[in-house]
What does this fold into?
Amino acid sequence: MTSTASAPTADATSTRIWNFSAGPAVLPEPVLRQCQHDLWDIAGSGIGILEHSHRGPVFNGVIEAAEANCRAVGTIGEEYEVLFLPGGATTQFALIPMCFLPSGQTADYVNTGVWATKAIKEARKFGTVNVAFDGTASDFDHVPADDELSCTSDAAYLHYCSNNTIYGTQFPAPPPAASDVPLIVDASSDIFSRPIDVDRHAMIYAGAQKNLGPAGMALVIIRKDLVEKTPSDLPMMFDYRLHAKKGSRLNTPPTFGIYVMGRVFEWILEQGGLAAMATKNAEKAAVVYDAIDHAGGFYRGVARPESRSAMNVTFRTPSADLDAAFLEEAATHDMSGLKGHRDAGGLRASIYNAFPKRGCQVLAEFMGDFARRKG
Ligand SMILES: Cc1ncc(COP(=O)(O)O)c(C=O)c1O
It folds into this structure.
């Protein structure tokens, strides 16, 4: 460790550093410690979590607690299924139109970046898509105001991405959808970072690897009436109805991922729930945005101020060379993962739920110092 600021180490053998990765990303330290314990022996069973049958009593307890705690975190009513599905968010990009975009209907998609574009591309394989907003022309620097949307009146559904991981933009509130048009959100990079109006959505889904747990699976919160629209002739693994009927155990599910998510839900509840998460995340983001805004113009934020994300803070120095020097120096101060996505360039600090405020302060101090020396 070269930094004088203390990085999040908890024991003498650890060499953990400030991890600003966009995903897979930092997880809460108490959760990781509990995982270490439970990998060896969970609940005094003499068997580690990775080694338990997915149909045995110990795993029954794990998945039931995970679902109950997820419902408690999101205030999710019984009219929604909570599913833990393999395949990450990208699998949902395909399953949604496969299941809910019948021929003769149009699905509305809000294009706010690379992930939304991928979702659109998948949907076009199954049916007609109306791009209700296209942010390409402005390099995806903002999410649309309500009057920038042109939606179809009888759309099969309206799909949007609540937080655009690559560009660092975030919807302050869900876009307006007609009451009979199901609203579907890809919340991969801001799920449970702030209160979410579940009832306004027919489906909320998120790849796990930012705010929830290990990569490779998705949390899917889906209203039962939408589940019932699933066609009956799909391969089993593509069938939401079957996944719901089998309680996310249609086949051997990603047991470890479900276990970790359950622990993360517990941790969120211990932190005070989503309102408390939102307060902490706003404070953290303000620290980094202040460093961008108060460096005499040395840094430039990528996102328009009104669309700024509390999860992914994107910015640039005056040149690509200085961006590279920034990264190199940041590494010597125990900071990693600050390189912007290849599609957006520049720099990006991902500060999800589990990222500590102290790490944001360390970054802000470094940014100020770097700007003074290089500006
Ligand atoms: C907003 C968003 N949607 C979807 C994905 C894709 O998730 P996955 O890799 O789990 O398929 C990502 C990945 O970073 C993302 O940030």
Remarks:
- The longest helix spans residues 273-293.
- Residues 23, 88-90, 115, 161, 165, 186, 188-189, 207 surround pyridoxal-5'-phosphate (CB under 6 Å).
